[in-house]
Amino acid sequence: MLLVIIGSAGMMKAQCGDELMKQALGAMGNYQYIKDFEAKLPAATAQTGQKFSLVLNSRTVYQINVANGASNAEQVVIEIMDGDKQIGSNLYQGKVLDKFGFNCMKTGAYKLRVYTQNGSEACARLVLSLVKQLPAQ
Q: What would the CATH number be for the domain defined by 2-133?
């Protein structure tokens, strides 16, 4: 029994490491890399999720690419929050997308929340990239 647990932990680490990062970076395309995040969601906390802080600039279009672990029972959901207001998510019309773009209209600190809808254990790598700067009004 102990060997199975150790083996499973090793598989989770292997499938959530560098290969996922390469996959997320590859999906980023020609956009400018800003930051990456490694999400590890144990089953007990998967619905409440993991939170990250980030600073975004006004008049900027961003994209987040998501690479889910191969053994995830479900894909991770990502929300970008400005206080209590959601400004972006990869959950769109009931589907979980592997990337999404959003316009940031004010410079400030934001929260990135990563979770699974049904509370399944999961891991993912996320890459935040700059798509373009919008002209000043």
A: 2.60.120.380
CA–CA separation, 38 vs 21, rounded Å?
9
Q: Which of 79, 82, 81 is nearest to 90 (CA)?
A: 79
Dist. CA 90–CA 115, nearest whole Å: 11
Residue 15 — pLDDT band, cuts 50, 70, 90? low
pTM: 0.83
Match 């993991």 to its residue by tokens.
50
C-alpha to C-alpha distance for 91 and 8, rounded to whole angstroms = 29
Which of the four pLDDT bands, split at 50, 70 and 90, describes residue 27? Answer: confident
**Per residue in 31-56, pLDDT tens?**
999 999 999 999 877 778 999 999 99
DSSP string, 23-44: HHHHHHTTSEEEEEEEEEE-GG
